[in-house]
Amino acid sequence: MLELVFQSIVPRLQQRRSTYFVHMSWLWKTDKGWKEYSKEDIEAIEDQFKKGKKRFDLNATYAIDFKNMIQVRKDDPTRQRNIKREGPAVEPRAQDEDPRPAKKGKQTKTEKVAEELRVNPKRLQRDFKITKDAEAKGVAPFTCELIDEDLYQWEIKLREFDPSSELYKEMSKYEKKHGIDHVTIRLYFPGDYPLEAPFVHIVSPKLVGGFVSVEPTTLTDDQQIFSGGMCASVLMQGWSAGIVPESLILQIRTLLHEGNPRIYNMNKIESWSENEARSGFQSAKQAHANDKSFE
């Protein structure tokens, strides 16, 4: 069954490395449908998005509002277009384009492996199968599904919390009010996974405190915006290509137990947006850049 899933979601990714490469895609909605931005604009938008920016000027005419996922005309803010992020996508190279990075000398073994992994989905296919197998055997305290059949985006529902933890108490109250017994998180895998860590997005309920990253405001020193990013050494300096998603998910679950986060508003069903999560994570990452405890 899983093999059929893989065949349906990544047929294009199984092309030869010398012919294809992976990238994210950004599109804006025209009157006739969705249209992709230029390659240069996509690179600029993706760069600002990963930095957790809420807004940036795309050019002299348009600005990108990540919070509302819209393109705004700068001289008339009422003129807006919806935007969306898709991918990773696969794009054919020009026939005369050398797919290999420019070399100053002999390519190292690490560089060769990195080059292969950046466009090879087989590792992620295997990791997804391992994770689903653990779920099917009933040995995993979570469920895992792809988001829109995208191998690079997973949605996880964490369950079976430690009765002695604050998280268990919070979720018990939340379940009584709303009938929801799980914490939803999402994993976004970069094109060069496993060399780079997946981004972890705590979606819902809105957990705050503990290892859930925060972004300080400019209002007062003690006020904070809790943003849904996961602040943990394993996702920063401590990442290793040998870490598999199943193990990472269990580590996240353990950190949520140990961090004793609370639910931001027990009376509402709310979730953190991906942009809020990325913004909080970048703030936390910068704050811990020189913190040796995160190495």
Describe what this molecule looks like in 3D:
The chain has 295 residues and is α+β, with helices and mostly antiparallel strands. The protein folds into two domains: 73 residues, Signal recognition particle alu RNA binding heterodimer, srp9/1, CATH 3.30.720; 169 residues, Ubiquitin Conjugating Enzyme. It has seven helices and 14 strands. The strands form four sheets. Strands 2-1-6-5-4-3 form a six-stranded antiparallel beta sheet. A hairpin with a 4-residue loop joins strand 3 and strand 4. The chain is globular and about 55 Å long. About 15% of the residues have low confidence. InterPro entries: UBC, UBQ-conjugating_enzyme/RWD, WWE-dom_subgr, WWE_dom, WWE_dom_sf. GO terms for molecular function: zinc ion binding. Pfam families: WWE (PF02825).
Q: What is the structural class?
A: alpha+beta
In CATH, the topology of the largest domain is named Ubiquitin Conjugating Enzyme
Number of helices: 7
Low-confidence stretches: 5-22, 89-103, 215-225
| Sequence of secondary-structure elements | HEEHEEEEHHEEHEEEEEHEH
Measured as a percent range, the helix fraction is 25-40%
Q: Which strands sit side by side, in order, in the main sheet?
A: 2-1-6-5-4-3
Domain UBC core: 119-295
Protein name: Ubiquitin-conjugating enzyme E2 Q2-like
Biased composition (Basic and acidic residues): 75-101
InterPro entries: UBC (IPR000608), UBQ-conjugating_enzyme/RWD (IPR016135), WWE-dom_subgr (IPR018123), WWE_dom (IPR004170), WWE_dom_sf (IPR037197)
